[in-house]
């Protein structure tokens, strides 16, 4: 008989056979229970719970991997938790309205090739902050105070970036680059500490490593001037996006497996939709402010109506079917991570189109019957064209095909460009609105009398 209170430091190897079979008497010495595991064992009812905990410690001993601590694990989303986007995430998105508005303002002030390239670099930097934040809230529970603090700190940093955007290639370059670097490295260090002992530290470590690599050209570019700054910042965003495309290959950690990439269909789909609606909010804000500054004369009122009609059509074309079915498409995809990446690129292009369209709307409302310059045509027609290109990619990601009216619309916009040199800006905007209206009508007509199309992403089983 064993005395009361006796506890053995031996436990059976989980792989041994049942009693009476060969090897059933084999026993393996394991280390004493850790404090965290012992605490969990005390609260575990029944023999089965004890065996599972001992087997978990045995596995950790065999693999040499750190055991998951309960506190770090509490930061993660659980499979049974609601996967909808939270109010905190929508609150964070509000900071992006300001950033996108600043991008449109910067483009209007520098309507040249250099201004366009600068806008692209800055948009990629803003999008990367939003995308990595969405990835964090996809993996971590936004209801936890630590994650809420992290998202709010990122919001503050995003506001600093937005405030420095318009002069980022002139006087506020160091502020913009510094805010960008602090967001990514500070966030990575915070998570690395919070996840002490958790396997998710490997994922955070990869992202932190590449944030450090990209920080070098960000800061070096901020200390340089002119084309050197543009070249270094282009390198910085190229490093960030290339690392993501390659799975963040990191010395000592390797590439991130697909299981570590954000792939919660419902959450990702809602986040993309939210960001697109936020971008439309920036377009409405720019249009309303331009109308307010220009007065309420008949010609400017007409330009305002055309601009709002364009905004409504962009919303309608986006949301029709593909925008509604993204979550189902991700869930049905053979490779959800790849489809999520494709949807990310598509939304980035569409948001770029909205930023350019906002600049065009402001020009049209301010000068409805002025002299149309080639650069004005580029933004008035180019914004809707960029949106249609992104929307075509989005449609292919969801349905595995592209409706003919998308490329036709792009060709019509391109064909109209030479003739638009001889008409006022209001008519140029009206032509773009007419093309978008034709696409929206085509969508409605094609769907009439047919059952709703179900998502069929490339590679999905038939």
Q: What string, H for helix and E for strand, traces the elements in order?
A: EEHHHHHHHHHHHHHHHH
Coarse structural class: mainly alpha
- How many DSSP H or I helices? 16
Number of strands: 2
| Beta-strand content | under 5%
Radius of gyration: 27 Å
Q: Can you give the helix content as a percent range? A: 55-70%
N- and C-termini, Cα separation:
64 Å
List low-pLDDT spans.
1-69
Estimate the global geometry from the Cα principal axes.
globular
- Arithmetic mean of pLDDT: 83
**Looking across the biggest beta sheet, what order are the strands in?**
1-2
Largest sheet: 2 strands, antiparallel
Describe the structure.
The chain contains 16 helices and 2 strands. The chain is globular, with a radius of gyration of 27 Å. It is an all-alpha fold. The protein has a two-stranded antiparallel ribbon. Helices cover about 70% and strands about 0% of the residues. Helix 4 (about 85-110) packs across helix 10. The protein has helices spanning about 35-40, 45-65, 70-75, 85-110, 115-140, 145-165, 175-195, 200-225, 225-245, 265-295, 300-325, 325-330, 335-365, 375-400, 405-415, 425-445; strands spanning about 10, 25-30. Mean pLDDT is about 85; it is low at about 1-70.
